[in-house]
Every structure is written in structure tokens, then in C-alpha cells.
Amino acid sequence: MPAAIKKLRFAFILYWVLLAYILAALVWWFIALNRQNNQMTRLKKQEAITQTKPGSPALSQIEEENKRKKAQYIGEGSIFFLLIVAGAVFVFRTVRSQLRQSQQQQHFMMALTHELKTPIAVAKLNLETLQKRKLDDSQRERLLQTALQETNRLNSLCNNMLLSSQIEAGGYRTTFEETNFSELVQNCVTDFHNRFPQRLLKMNIPENHFVMGDRLLLQLAINNLIDNALKYAPKESPISIQLREEGASLYVAVKDEGKGIPDTEKKHIFEKFYRIGNAATKAAKGTGLGLYLTRKILDQHNANISVTDNQPSGAIFIISIPALHEKN
Ligand code: ADP
Predict the structure, then answer these.
(1) Residues paired with residue 77 on neighbouring β-strands, in sequence order
(2) What is d(CA 272, CA 280) in angstroms, rounded to the nearest whole number?
(3) Sheet strands side by side (includes 304-309)
(4) Distance from the alpha carbon of residue 223 to the mean position of ligand 1, in angstroms
(5) Which of 54-58, 111-115, 273-277, 289-293 has the lowest mean pLDDT?
(6) Which residues pair with 251 in a beta bridge?
(7) 239-246 and 304-309: which strand pairing?
(8) Is residue 242 a contact partner of residue 226, using CB atoms and an 8 Å limit?
(9) Mutate to test the pocket of ligand 1, among 113, 199, 228, 293 (most ligand atoms within 8 A of CB)
(10) CA-to-CA distance for 151 and 154, rounded, in angstroms?
């Protein structure tokens, strides 16, 4: 959008010119007033020396008044200066963050278009092939499997998008209920195992650990982590999902053996629409919503998420959530 960028550049130039003009005017105002003050002092001193006016103040008094006025101008000028600079910094920061957000939103829209079109195109093509051609059982099975995988991806993308807008608008009603967290995590892993039978998913999930939470949201948070581990690690590498209780919390760790996440990116990946910008990871499909939504969900459950490095390579995402007492 060259026209919009031109307009924006013009607005920025105008902003800096106006700011410079206001500050210069302020300095000039101080110089002029001070000069006037000095002139007045000089005149008053002359009058006092020549005694042209009866009852003229003493020289020391005149000097005192000059100093007082100077201090007054400096005080008023400094307050003006600080107010203008504080206002300018505030406006600049606000506009800059809005710009960044709209840029990220643009990237998101591009990624989203791609994310929506691909599964629809794949599912459509597979169904058309099934309709037009006589295929053997294994071919039919393969086409159905990929169509199903793509529609599942579409489904989780829609869920992520709908929920994040609902949570942000305050439109989603969380239902907190006693939830068997062990079962919930197991179900998520089993579901991924059925969808991606060729991937190696190891789980170590002791039974009957409970939390208070919204099942749908917690499921979505866990699914996002497993989905990322599968997406960003090589197909032949294993993914491990573990649950353990420590103190008053339950910990779920999702480990992969992919490239991992550089330290400088670790704090950014939970931001809305953020995706790490190297070619290898961008080749993987995504919108930058998953981890943002996961963190939002966990915030609502007084839970935390952190990310560390796996050894020798890969990422470990760890969720900690307050535990309910174990049920037997
Ligand atoms: P998406 O996967 O849709 O891009 P996410 O919010 O889930 O969005 O993730 C944000 C970014 O964090 C991803 O684009 C990716 O660069 C990085 N990331 C997330 N999980 C992993 C992981 N397990 N290994 C490496 N990078 C990851």
C-alpha cells in the first residue's frame, strides 16, 4: 500500500517538524523574556543611579527582582518543556504500537488466507478424486485420511480464532468444574495419535490428577502445544508428554526434538500473531495465535506456561496449574 505508507511517512515528518517548532518556540520565548527582563533591570538601575524618579528602589532590590523573574521563567519553561516532551513521547509510543499491531494483523490475514485455503483445497481435491475415479481400498483410505486431517486442522484453526476473539471481547463464559486432568491430557494425546499414526508420541501420565477448570479451554491449550511440537520438529523425532505433581501444582511438559526456540524469541512467542521469522519455521503452517491463546487460557486458570531448551535440541513447554486433591 504505497499511498498509505506515503501518508504515514508524511504524518511522521509533520509530527517531528511540529515538535521541533514547539520546542524551538519555547526556547525562543525564554530568551526573549529574559532579554526583556535584563533590559528592564538595566533601565531601572539607570533611573536609580540618576535619581530621576523619586522613591526609586535600591540597586540590590532591582537585582533581586531580576533574579526572581529569571527563576520564574526557568521554572515555567521547564514545566512546559517536560509536559510537551512527555506528551510527544506518549503519542509517539501509542502510534508506533498501533502501527506494529496493524502490521502484525496484516501478516496474520495473509497467513490466515493461506491456512484456510490449503485445507479446503486439499479436502476438495481428495473428495473429487474419490467421486470421479475408481480407486482401491488403500488409495481411498489414504485420500480420506488426508482430507480428514486437513478438516481437523481447519477445525482447530476456527476454534482458536473464535475463542480468542470471544475471550478478548469477554463473550466466552468459562465453566469451571472439577476436571480429571490426567484423562484430559491422555485424550488429547490419543486424539493426536489417531490423527498422526506415523508420529511417535510418548506419554507418561499418572492417573487421576484433578484440577478446577474449563475442559474445552484446557483441551485447546494442551492441543496447541502438542500441535506445535508436531509441526516444528522433524517427522521421525519423538514427542514426549509428561504429567507430574509437585507441591500444590500439576506440571505438564511437552518436549520435542526440533530446532528449539532462541532465547531472544522466548518472550515474544506468546504475543498475538507472533511467529519466529526464519525461513525454516515460517515454512510450517500457522497464524501466531496458538501460544497467545494458550497463555490467555492459562491466565484464566491461575496457571503458568514457560519454555526452556530440550537437550541436545528442541523445546520444552511446561504448564503449571493448581492441583485439586487426588481422587481415588
Ligand atoms: P503458529 O504455530 O500458528 O505460528 P504459535 O502461537 O503456536 O503460532 O507459535 C508462535 C511461534 O512460536 C511459531 O510461529 C514458531 O515460530 C514458534 N514455536 C512454537 N512452538 C514451537 C516449538 N515447539 N518449536 C519451535 N518453535 C516453536
Answers:
(1) none
(2) 20
(3) 201-204, 239-246, 249-255, 315-322, 304-309
(4) 13
(5) 54-58
(6) 244, 320
(7) unpaired
(8) no
(9) 228
(10) 5
- Which residues make Cβ contacts (< 8 Å) with residue 16, sequence separation at least 6? none
Name the residue at shortest CA distance from atom 2 of ligand 1: 286
For the chain, give the percent of residues with pLDDT over 70.
95
Q: Which atom of ligand 1 is nearest to the CA of 256?
A: 23
Count Cβ atoms within 10 A of the Cβ of residue 252 and give its class: 0-12 exposed, 13-18 middle, 19 or more buried: buried
Q: What is the mean pLDDT of residues 34-52?
A: 86
In this model, does residue 5 exceed pLDDT 80?
no
Distance (Å) from CA 299 to ligand 1 centroid = 19
pTM score, whole prediction: 0.71
Ligand 1 centroid – CA 41 distance (Å): 71
CA of 291 to the centre of ligand 1 (A): 7
